[in-house]
Specification:
Radius of gyration of chain A: 18 Å
Distance between the termini of chain B: 27 Å
Oligomer: heterodimer
Strand content of chain B: under 5%
Shape of chain B: elongated
Structural class of chain A: mainly alpha
Order of helices and strands of chain B: HHHH
Number of helices of chain A: 12
Distance between the termini of chain A: 33 Å
Number of strands of chain A: 2
Number of helices of chain B: 4
Chain lengths: ~290, ~150
């Protein structure tokens, strides 16, 4: 049985500090900002309060996408040619959620890491944050009252996610870290494009920004956490995997991204150096990068 | 049919893996039942989400990895495997209805839990039997199958 809750935060970084200090500082940040972790209910105390507030004011999007077209394209390998940018964006969001959900479910199925939650509570917090990401992305889709068929990611990405879950924690860190870096870049791109596409519907655009920012702040923290656990060579391998391997798998599994942003733009963004300290600075108070990748 | 010892070995491994994942899913499902009986909706929702996400991941692995391998070794099991995949799709609808019932704490939740538990147990049993059969060498008459009733 896992722990029911974590202890007090103790001395940690000041709320204005957002970088450095290694795993201990990240742990203190999580305890302070997330409150108690409940692995049985899959809840983080403070985030749950935030979600209750969000639930109470969920807007209904003015844009009414065709449910049949959406459902049909969820099962297609490549999206139909006739889809507009808003439909492509919704499909990309839904497919990214399917990948997140597959990873979370697989993690539960294999039950890896649970025996370390007492001694390394930050791993429990990271896992619970990943659960919240599936909820957040589902919330985005629910504003448009779309169906949510369960479609597993394609073979390449599925294999990679399975490796994330089944490799021993320390061995898998470079691969997981690369996935987190790619996630940071893609979620930012998706946030900005979503806000632009639905700008004519301010409550929806604002909620898209809020929800994607939640994920981004967490993912930045995960990159810093992994960086803090890796030696120099491991960090170098992580950067290599992110820029050369992982992004291709993710983009191939979500071809809507290529249609939305163009291959050249995606390649340009995803092969750039990712500065986790700068990213954490942008989300100061909400994100904490324990070390530089 | 030509003997494929490599694939048969792999099926032995898959049979053990599937069985172990079923036991994990059974434990998650038992936790949903316990949480629902506790009368605290938040507990039931948390337990349900864990069970549902793990079940979907398990279905994905079966449909995309394990069933195709079994189909390669035993093409004669195609009908049974198709029925199992169709049953996975039916579980999705049941799970969504259960989720809504648990969220609303309505009287239907317990009836749905009982029905789902019985169907899941039968489904797991069918899958384990198929995989167990596939690991046996064919008898003198070339047959290894006995019962063919997919849940």
């Amino acid at each position: 049985m896992m722990m029911a809750s974590t202890g007090s935060a103790g001395p940690g970084p000041s709320p204005r500090v957002h970088f450095g200090g290694g795993v201990a500082a990240y742990r203190a940040f999580l305890l302070r900002t997330e409150g108690a972790a409940d692995p049985v209910r899959l809840r983080l105390a403070r985030r749950e309060a935030y979600f209750e507030e969000l639930e109470a004011e969920r807007p209904r999007a003015r844009y009414r996408p065709d449910r049949d077209v959406f459902r049909r394209n969820m099962y297609r390998r490549r999206p139909e040619d006739s889809l507009d940018a808003r439909m492509l964006w919704l499909l990309a969001t839904a497919k990214m959620n399917q990948s997140e959900r597959f990873g979370v479910g697989l993690g539960e199925l294999y039950g890896r890491g649970q025996r370390h939650f007492e001694s390394q509570p930050e791993r429990l917090y990271v896992q619970l944050q990943e659960h919240y990401h599936t909820r957040i992305l589902a919330d985005v889709i629910s504003m448009f009252e779309l169906p949510f068929p369960i479609v597993p990611p394609p073979l390449g990405l599925r294999t990679m996610i399975k490796l994330f879950v089944t490799l021993p924690h320390e061995w898998g860190l470079p691969l997981v870290g690369a996935g987190e870096i790619v996630g940071c870049v893609l979620f930012r791109l998706m946030r900005d494009r979503g806000v632009a596409l639905f700008a004519a519907d301010p409550p929806v655009a604002s909620r898209i920004r809020r929800l994607y920012d939640e994920i981004l702040a967490d993912e930045i923290g995960h990159v810093g956490f992994i960086a803090a656990k890796l030696p120099r060579a491991g960090r170098s391998l992580t950067r290599f995997l992110a820029r050369r391997v992982v992004w291709r798998r993710v983009v191939r599994a979500t071809p809507e991204l290529e249609r939305l942003f163009g291959r050249a733009e995606l390649r340009g963004r995803l092969t750039q150096e990712f500065d986790v300290e700068r990213a954490a600075h942008e989300f100061a108070g909400r994100a904490y990068a324990a070390a530089s990748m | 049919m030509r003997e494929q010892p490599g694939l048969r070995k792999r099926m032995e491994l898959e049979a053990r893996r599937i069985s172990s994942q079923h036991r994990q899913l059974d434990a998650f499902f038992a936790a949903v039942v316990r949480a629902a009986r506790s009368g605290v909706p938040a507990d039931a929702q948390g337990a349900f989400l864990r069970f549902r996400d793990a079940l979907y991941a398990h279905f994905s692995l079966e449909e995309r990895t394990e069933f195709p391998a079994l189909r390669g070794l035993r093409p004669d099991l195609g009908v049974e495997l198709d029925a199992l995949v169709a049953a996975h799709a039916a579980f999705q609808g049941e799970l969504e209805r259960l989720r809504l019932s648990l969220a609303a704490s309505d009287g239907e939740a317990f009836r749905r839990l009982d029905a789902l538990g019985a169907r899941l147990a039968a489904h797991e049993e069918t899958e384990e039997r198929l995989f167990e059969q596939s690991t046996r060498r064919p008898g003198p008459d070339g047959s290894t199958t006995t019962d063919r009733r997919p849940a």
